[in-house]
Design the sequence.
């Protein structure tokens, strides 16, 4: 595992976007990172326990990058990740899954399971990932009324913003109305952002305007 230590000492302590490549060669951190990627699922415990649990943002981002590069085929090694008592690491792993979306069957299944996670950040990432597919619009619509955490509600509304359908639009307009009634400014902003994405409208609008727009929406 010496190359793992080498990767951590070189790659995790430099800004990869600014590091210079030696003339005629590759950066000193390229080889160990390439070797970690080649390990596949065997590298997942080290990435999660060391990098994703780290307090340094550059190490966290390195962990995310490595998990993305290793890919969904290593997913069986991930299941233990969501049993650890570290909500930050679980959220970060869930974020990588959300970035992958639902095209891979194993990722899709795990995202569905994570809707019931005890941590709000994990649940939010799960809905964001599921929101990449039209298949789960009905699920998101229902979750927008049953989910109790305000942050997760906002993420669900934003995910629905990627789907121009009457059902999705109606759910977000209703969410906007509830947010106004509750004086939930963040909820109002999330709903307005989602509706502007659906409608293609550049400017913010009030509830009356969005309800009027909703009456014109037809499923595509």
Sequence:
């Amino acid at each position: 595992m010496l190359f793992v230590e080498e990767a951590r000492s070189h790659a995790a302590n430099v800004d990869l976007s600014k590091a210079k490549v030696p003339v005629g060669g590759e950066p000193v951190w390229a080889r160990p990172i390439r070797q970690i990627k080649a390990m596949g699922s065997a590298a997942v415990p080290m990435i999660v326990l060391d990098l994703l649990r780290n307090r340094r943002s550059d190490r966290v981002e390195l962990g995310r990058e490595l998990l993305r590069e290793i890919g969904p085929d290593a997913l069986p090694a991930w299941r233990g990740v969501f049993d650890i008592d570290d909500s930050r690491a679980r959220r970060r792993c869930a974020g990588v899954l959300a970035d992958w979306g639902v095209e891979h069957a194993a990722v899709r299944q795990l995202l569905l399971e994570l809707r019931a996670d005890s941590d709000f950040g994990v649940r939010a990432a799960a809905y964001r990932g599921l929101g990449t597919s039209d298949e789960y619009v009905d699920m998101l619509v229902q979750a927008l009324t049953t989910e109790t955490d305000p942050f997760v509600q906002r993420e669900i509304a934003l995910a629905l913003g990627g789907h121009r359908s009457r059902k999705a639009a109606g759910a977000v307009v209703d969410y906007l109305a509830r947010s106004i009634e509750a004086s939930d400014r963040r909820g109002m902003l999330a709903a307005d952002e989602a509706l502007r994405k659906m409608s293609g409208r550049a400017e913010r609008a009030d509830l009356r305007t969005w309800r009027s727009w909703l009456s014109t929406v037809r499923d595509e």
Notes: Residues 166-181 form the longest helix (16 residues). The chain has twelve helices and no strands. Residues 137-220 form one domain. Residues 160 and 168 are 6 Å apart (CA to CA).
